Amino acid sequence: MTETLVLLDNTMLSNFSVAQQPGLAIAACPGRACTTEAALAEYLAAPEEERFAEHAWRDLPIIELTDGEKQTAEALPASLGAGERTCLAVAIARRSVLASDDLHARRVAARHDAKTAGTVGLLVMAIEARLVSLDQANALLTAMIAAGYRSPVESLDALLRADR
Asked: pTM (2 decimals)?
């Protein structure tokens, strides 16, 4: 059985970059984290001070879209960026997960029955995989919020207690 891909869009690339932890997003989804050329291009188009480093995502696999996925991406709302459209098209076609903090992209994903995850979800996955402690993950979340991430929570504590 093939592992479900987790397609990281620009919001995810940016959030983990500003926290200087691009490898954590990859490690939280071992063998499944990936992105598209368009999503990476959006990240690289950001001003240098808003991203970690151009090489930060060199270990993140880039998925090549099939012709059908390209057609799906073109049919998705133009209000989504090319990165969100291509990541979502792959998530739809391959029954994978769109990792995005873009609310509009997540709503479009829901209309297509595509699963979604966000920064908070990946941080929780990293804690559960023992890649970081709860305190470390909360510090990363705080750094992301300080850099402009509009998190639905200020702390991961309650989420982890609710899971147990």
From this structure: 0.91
Number of domains the chain is built from: 1
Q: Supply the CATH number for residue 117's domain.
A: 3.40.50.1010
DSSP 65: P
Asked whether residue 1 is domain-assigned, the answer is no
Please give the full DSSP string across 118-143, using - where no structure is assigned.
-HHHHHHHHHHTTSS-HHHHHHHHHH
pLDDT in tens, the chain (164 residues): 357 999 999 999 999 988 889 899 999 999 899 999 999 999 988 776 666 666 778 899 999 999 999 999 999 999 999 999 999 999 999 999 999 999 999 999 999 999 999 999 999 999 999 999 999 999 999 999 998 899 999 999 988 865 44
